[in-house]
From TrEMBL:
Presence of the UniProt keyword Metal-binding in the record: yes
Family as reported in the entry's similarity comment: Belongs to the UPP synthase family.
Cofactor annotation: Mg(2+)
Protein name (Swiss-Prot/TrEMBL): Tritrans,polycis-undecaprenyl-diphosphate synthase (geranylgeranyl-diphosphate specific)
Any Pfam family the entry gives: Prenyltransf
Signal sequence annotation: none
Residues at which Mg(2+) binds: 36, 225
GO molecular-function terms, A-Z: ditrans,polycis-polyprenyl diphosphate synthase [(2E,6E)-farnesyl diphosphate specific] activity; magnesium ion binding
Residues the record marks as active site: 36, 84
Main function: Catalyzes the sequential condensation of isopentenyl diphosphate (IPP) with geranylgeranyl diphosphate (GGPP) to yield (2Z,6Z,10Z,14Z,18Z,22Z,26Z,30E,34E,38E)-undecaprenyl diphosphate (tritrans,heptacis-UPP). It is probably the precursor of glycosyl carrier lipids.
NCBIfam families, per the entry: uppS
Gene name, Swiss-Prot/TrEMBL: uppS
Biased composition (Acidic residues): 300-312
């Protein structure tokens, strides 16, 4: 009875969270996840490490489904960092075996092909064992023609290494005369980030209780001022409610940002002369719906006043 009641309450809470979210247009386009806690989950359950990673892989499949439900278009999973090479060889082998299995399983899954999921690896994949590289190539080749949803698997990935590699590439081209300092722009750097085009990150989720982003996608997340959601459940125990709370955090931050921009625009509008009014009204109009009702009324009153006093 208690189990049934707990499930009913959980499902009701998920429905409430889902209603709190906006439409798909307000969903984060790119979500990046640091899947922490697989080993701790296994240890607390009295199981071996492999069991923890297998349970985490099941969570990954569910998160892919949840992302598509709310309108996320790109998902990046931090599966194996450059620091993970320092772990004992037997732990690495468990991860490598699971990666090979899941990459091939995902690449052959009917749902992946029905929903147009493009699977890509980002990172210094040349450092991975040959069998993992072969599995990566298989998954990428099977899904390369899809573009409805992008699933990035960060393997042998390190944010600092990524930026350092891009800087070295630019320096070599400058030294060789193929590039000048004035030629360097955002696109110059992005084209050298592990050879993959990754859209800016809107939301980072980290499970397992640690509140740090661990050198993950610094260019794409920090440059875009991504929202960050830290939560205590280990990755295998990460639930749909946890995911919806993360999306809610992003949407609340976005609404707050829009309100701030709208208020600033309103203040500037009041201070501007007639020559700037048309542009200011256009800008403010895009944020009008984000204003509280009292401020929308203030804006409407100001619009009327400014039109009545405008020179003919």
């Amino acid at each position: 009875m208690r189990g049934w009641l707990r499930r009913q309450l959980g499902e009701s809470y998920e429905r409430l969270l889902r209603r709190e979210l906006g439409d798909d247009e307000r969903a984060p386009a790119h979500v990046a996840v640091i899947q922490d806690g697989n080993r701790r989950y296994a240890r607390e359950a009295g199981a071996d490490t492999a069991t923890g990673y297998e349970a985490g892989a099941d969570t990954t499949e569910r998160v892919l489904e949840w992302c598509q439900e709310v309108g996320v278009e790109e998902l990046t999973l931090y599966a194996f960092s450059t620091e993970n090479f320092e772990r004992p060889p037997e732990q690495q082998e468990v991860i490598f075996d699971l990666l090979c299995e899941k990459l091939r399983e995902f690449a052959d899954a009917e749902r992946v092909h029905e929903e147009g999921v493009c699977i890509r690896a980002i990172g210094d994949v040349d450092r991975l064992p040959d069998r993992v590289q072969t599995a990566i190539a298989y998954a990428e080749d099977r899904t390369r023609d899809y573009d409805d949803f992008v699933l990035n698997i960060a393997l042998a990935y390190g944010g600092r290494n990524e930026l350092l590699s891009a800087a070295r590439s630019v320096a070599r081209e400058i030294e060789g005369g193929d590039l000048t300092p004035d030629d360097i722009d955002v696109e110059t750097i992005e084209s050298r980030l592990y050879g993959r085009t990754v859209r800016d990150v809107d939301l980072i989720i980290r499970t397992g209780g640690d509140e740090r982003t661990s050198n993950f996608l610094p260019w794409h997340a920090n440059g875009n001022e991504a929202a960050v959601y830290f939560c205590t459940p280990y990755w295998p125990a990460f639930s749909r409610a946890d995911f919806l709370r993360a999306v809610r955090t992003y949407e609340h931050r976005e609404r707050s940002w829009r309100r701030t921009r709208a208020r600033r625009a309103l203040a500037l509008l009041r201070a501007m002369g007639e020559t700037e009014l048309a542009d200011a009204r256009s800008i403010l109009g895009r944020f009008r719906d984000s204003l509280p009702s009292t401020e929308r009324e203030s804006l409407d009153e100001f619009e009327v006043d400014s039109q009545e006093t405008a020179p003919e």
